[in-house]
Specification:
The protein is built from 13 helices and 15 strands. By secondary structure, the chain is an alpha/beta fold. The protein has 2 domains: about 140 residues, Aspartate Aminotransferase, domain 1 (Alpha-Beta Complex); about 220 residues, Type I PLP-dependent aspartate aminotransferase-like (Major domain) (Aspartate Aminotransferase, domain 2), CATH 3.40.640. InterPro entries: Aminotransferase_I/II_large, AspAT/PAT-like, NHTrfase_class1_PyrdxlP-BS, PyrdxlP-dep_Trfase, PyrdxlP-dep_Trfase_major.
């Protein structure tokens, strides 16, 4: 028996990220424009790093509250009051070591061996893999795509529910499609979850990156305190903090101790000086976020205009998040296409195959970068399209 044969089957089956495979192939190419990862090109702003540096220099390097320092949980309450018009006590917030950690803790709490967790696909691949690692069975339900854009057929979700279903994972605005649920769709999903007595894991990480009027619709707009919803979120996207690995869960106060225990036995809490930076992000960062959303809007419109003019790119202008999920006439294998684009256009994109059922023919482009880079990349891609 080899060394790996003694590992758990779930660990052995964990897939290589289809995004990282392309990144590793092209990351050292001179002059390559990297639009493959889900992050912007700006470093964390000084008002955040200064707060963390001050705390670090001040000796805030010891063990801290597993559920998060009170100052950060209070700042989260203020954030929700401003952006969602809801008043929540600090006891409803748990600080996690990233949004991914928040998802893992939610899955640990809800699903184990043989349980099923439904998610909407195409989807960020980490959820599918995290569910499988927990021993659960991830069940994709594909979003519909037509000339009218992406949409969610709630009846398809209902048909996928079985006695083993423990939770529905709902990411809106969506990575990678940009699909954003309206209140009617959210209400239908919530009604279904109530009727079937299943949980919702609500990933609303991109709620502020919404190109309508204000933030995106949220389950918080329609839910009651007793609804079975875990809200998972991250500091990564809104405040240019992808490398910090800080996130949170919003949950019912009665579940605080359970999640504190799960934090204790996973990462034992987020470094306190990093949490000080997160406080600054929440309390001082609304202007920064607004600037980034407007910048992303301009980049979205720019890339959609250039690629749309080719006549061979098929896409729906995203309502939220900061990705263009597009297909190219004649391309059916997006993984092979992503490698070819690295070689011939010197642009890094994520292949749609990485995002599961419904994404195979698409490519994901992150346009959350400065406009001249996005414009250059779009023209390179348009040139490449003329050769396929």
């Amino acid at each position: 028996m080899s060394l790996i044969d003694s590992f758990r089957a779930e660990a052995r089956a964990a897939p290589e990220s289809g995004i990282v495979a392309v990144v590793n192939y092209g990351r050292l190419r001179e002059g390559l424009i990297p639009l493959w990862a889900g992050e912007g090109d700006l470093p964390t702003p000084a008002f955040i790093t200064d707060a963390a540096s001050k705390a670090l220099a001040g000796g805030e390097t010891f063990y801290t509250w597993q559920r998060g320092i009170p100052d950060l949980r209070q700042a989260l309450a203020r954030y929700y009051a401003r952006h969602f018009g809801k008043t929540f006590p600090e006891e409803q917030f748990i600080v996690t070591g990233s949004g991914m950690h928040a998802i893992q803790m939610s899955l640990t709490a809800l699903a184990g061996a043989g349980d099923e967790v439904i998610y909407l696909s195409p989807a960020w691949p980490n959820f599918d893999a995290a569910a499988a690692l927990s021993g659960a069975v991830p069940v994709p339900v594909t979003l519909d795509h037509s000339g009218n854009g992406w949409s969610c057929d709630v009846e398809k979700i209902a048909a996928a529910i079985t006695p083993r279903t423990k939770a529905l994972f709902i990411n809106t605005p969506s990575n990678p499609t940009g699909w954003t649920a309206d209140h009617e769709t959210l209400q239908a999903i919530l009604d279904l979850a109530r009727a079937k007595n299943v949980w919702i894991i609500a990933d609303e990480i991109y709620s502020l990156f919404h190109y309508g009027h204000g933030r995106a619709p949220s389950f918080l707009d329609i839910a009651t305190e007793e609804d079975r919803i875990l809200f998972v979120n991250s500091f990564s996207k809104n405040w240019a903090m992808t490398g910090w690995r800080v996130g949170w869960i919003k949950t019912h106060p009665s579940l605080q101790q359970v999640f504190e225990n799960l934090i204790q036995y996973s990462n034992s809490g987020v470094a306190q000086f990093m949490q000080r930076g997160a406080v600054a992000a929440l309390d001082e960062g609304d202007g920064f976020v607004a600037e980034q959303v407007e910048r992303a809007r301009k980049a979205r419109d720019l890339v959609c205009g250039i690629l749309g003019a080719t006549g061979s790119a098929r896409f729906t202008v995203p309502q939220g998040a900061f990705y263009l999920f597009f297909a190219v006439d004649g391309i059916t294998d997006s993984r092979a296409a992503a490698f070819d684009i690295v070689d011939k256009a010197n642009v890094g994109l994520a292949p749609g195959t990485a995002f599961g059922p419904g994404g195979e023919a698409f490519l994901r482009l992150c346009f959350h970068r400065r406009l001249d880079q996005v414009e250059d990349a779009a023209h390179r891609l348009a040139k490449w399209m003329r050769t396929v």
